[in-house]
Each structure stands twice: as C-alpha cells, then as structure tokens.
Amino acid sequence: MPPRHLADLDLAGRRAAVSELGEQAFRAGQLSTHYFGRLERDPAGMTDIPAAARERLTGTLLPRLLTPVRELACDGGDTRKALWRLHDGSMVESVLMGYADRVTVCISSQAGCGMACPFCATGQAGLTRNLSTAEIVDQVVYLAGIAASGVMGGAPRRLSHVVFMGMGEPLANYNRVIDAVRRLTSPAPEGLGLSQRHITVSTVGLVPAMRKLAEEDLSVTLALSLHAPDDDLRDELVPVNQRWKVAEVLDAAWAYAARTGRRVSIEYAMIRDVNDQPWRADLLGRLLSGRLAHVNLIPLNPTPGSKWDASPKPVEREFVRRLRAAGVATTVRDTRGREIDGACGQLAASEVEA
Ligand code: SAH
C-alpha cells in the first residue's frame, strides 16, 4: 500500500499523528484546512506553518500519492481526463466534467478491475490493486483544484458531484471506499464537505456489499450496472452474475432504496443486437415497474478489440419508449469524453500514447 496520508485519517487520527511527531495538535487542523478547505496540495503554499514544522508534517502526512502523467481535454475544455502514476508505478485515470449547473468528477477506486466485463476496457486488463482511501480522495481534491481555477468555461467553479464510475469495482474495495465517502462528505476541515446525495457509488452487483452499504447510514446514490434483464445474457456481460443472479441483485437494490429512500440508478449499456431487443426492454420494464428506480441508458463506447458497438438510434428510441410505457423513468446518458478515451468503459490507463 502507499504511504499514509492525512486523507486516510479522520481529524482525531490526524491530531494523534501530529502529536506523535512532537508537533502541536492544532497543526492537524491547519494542514486539513489547506488540503480540504483551500485544495492546497503543495506544502510550499502552507506558509502559516513554520518551515521546519512544515517539512516534518508534510513528509509524514502529505506524501505525494498521485503524479500526473498526462491530462487530456475535449468538449472545449469541459471534459478533462487525468492519467496518474501511483507510488508503485500503477496507473489510474479520473475524468472531470463541467456542466452549466454542476461539476462532476468520475474517479477510480482500484487500479484495474477484477470483474472482467467483456465490453469494458478496464475489465479487460484485470485487477492490479485496491487504491487507498487517500489515493481515492486525492483524485477529487486535485481535480476540484483544477475546477476552482476556472478552466471549465461555463461551469461553476465549485466541484459538487463525485461518481465512483472510473476504474475498478468500488464495492470490492469496500472499507476504503466508505472511508473516502466519509472524507468527501465531512465538513471542512475534516473533509471536503460535499453532499452525500451528490455522490454516486456504482457496482456490478456485489450483493453482500450492497446490503452492507444500506446499513451505513449514508444517503449516497447507488448505481447498479445491470446491462441485461435475464440471467442468460447477464452471465456473459457481467460475469459476477454467475454468483449473484438478476433477481438477487435487484432485491438488494430495492432493499437499498427502501432503507435510504434514494432512487437506484440502473445502468444499461446499449449494445447493438446483444441486449437492445424490444422484448428485453419489456422484461426490464416489468422488473422495474413500481420500483424506486431510474434507468440510465449508456450508448456503448468503443473499446479496443471489442466486437460490439452501440445500438442504432431508432433501436435506442424504441427501448426508451417501451420502458417509459411501463412507467419507468428513463434517460440516455450524454456520454462525455469519447475522443480522449475518457468515456464509460474506456479507462485503461495505458501510457502508450503518453
Ligand atoms: N465497476 C463499477 C464501476 C464502474 S462504472 C460498475 O461496473 O458499476 C462504469 C460504468 O460504465 C458501468 O456501468 C459499466 O458497466 C459501464 N461501461 C463499461 N464499459 C462500457 C462501454 N464500453 N460503454 C458504455 N458503458 C460502459
């Protein structure tokens, strides 16, 4: 694992760590205010802390976790993908997206992914390792700083939304992801002070972890990557379905909705002639009708070596029509970042083009 960082600890833990160094405990609050309140990641900018103390403190609590390797932008600068190298050479990516009313960051929870979904570039590469809490949080703090600098054009400067939809399966790195959510949502200086409702955790459907998440007393949005309403096809598209079937995974989603009052987002990549048939729309409609759910259709993004492509627009429209006729709220995701391989399922953290 990477070196310990202040974002791995709550405020009490940071105070203890600072005291252990022989420094005064209030320095923990100062460091935290710089990092979470001012988005300052560079010790040189923390001038209210005397230089000698600063060096000791930052050496122990602010090690550099992410080294930017490459930043790419598209959509006139409103979509930015960052590729990072971690201390052990692993690579991860995050994507920052500016909209008229909000700024969203899509972050990675693992280097690679072990879930092996055949249409996802990350899934093809396999799992390298879990990220630490601070490696997850630091992606957000870094990109919140970029947004705050005003480069996102028409978007607000304040980062407001976080989606765990980058590389990795967040619920397979459960404790660190939950800790990261707590850091992102605690008020400054303990954390970044984001609203829990503005955080989305997306999962392939690890049922025991979904049930555990429902008990955390967090009102984060749960997204479930369903992609097929029937086990035959879902076994292939989302291999973990061989362990937890569609009915079980939806039961866990409804338990989450009942417990939190939050509408679950059902993610469904539209793959031509694979999962986009009218009968599958009807079956999905029957499964979701009357539930606290919303369907988010994602036009399939191309990935290297994949034999699949996106459904034609008329097929997509018919799918939407049938879901809505069944009374299911449905939207089609405005896919960002395709040109920079920054869209859903395209994150592969390859340095080849760097
Ligand atoms: N492992 C978690 C988090 C990743 S979220 C999960 O699967 O939910 C990334 C989302 O993009 C998931 O819904 C995933 O299924 C979807 N996705 C993966 N590859 C895609 C592709 N090529 N085109 C469109 N969506 C894709």
Question: Helices and strands in order, then pairings?
Answer:
Blueprint: H1 11-20, H2 26-37, H3 51-61, E1 67-74, E2 79-85, E3 91-98, E4 103-106, E5 110-112, H4 121-125, E6 127-130, H5 133-148, E7 161-164, H6 174-185, E8 199-203, H7 207-214, E9 221-225, H8 231-237, H9 246-260, E10 264-270, H10 278-288, E11 293-299, H11 313-325, E12 329-332
Parallel strand pairs: 4-7, 7-8, 8-9, 9-10, 10-11, 11-12
Antiparallel strand pairs: 1-2, 2-3, 3-4, 5-6
Helix pairs in contact: 1-2, 5-6, 7-9, 10-11
Would you kindly provide a written description of the structure presented here, covering whatever features stand out?
This protein has helices at residues 11-20, 26-37, 51-61, 121-125, 133-148, 174-185, 207-214, 231-237, 246-260, 278-288, 313-325, and strands spanning 67-74, 79-85, 91-98, 103-106, 110-112, 127-130, 161-164, 199-203, 221-225, 264-270, 293-299, 329-332. By secondary structure, the protein is an alpha/beta fold. The strands form 2 sheets. A 10-stranded mixed β-sheet has the order 1-2-3-4-7-8-9-10-11-12. α1 (11-20) crosses α2 (26-37), α5 (133-148) packs parallel to α6 and α10 (278-288) packs parallel to α11 (313-325). The chain is globular, with a radius of gyration of 21 Å. The model has no long low-confidence stretch (mean pLDDT 95). Residues 113, 115, 117, 119-120, 165, 169, 202-204, 225, 267, 269, 298, 300-301, 303, 344-345 line the site of S-adenosyl-L-homocysteine.
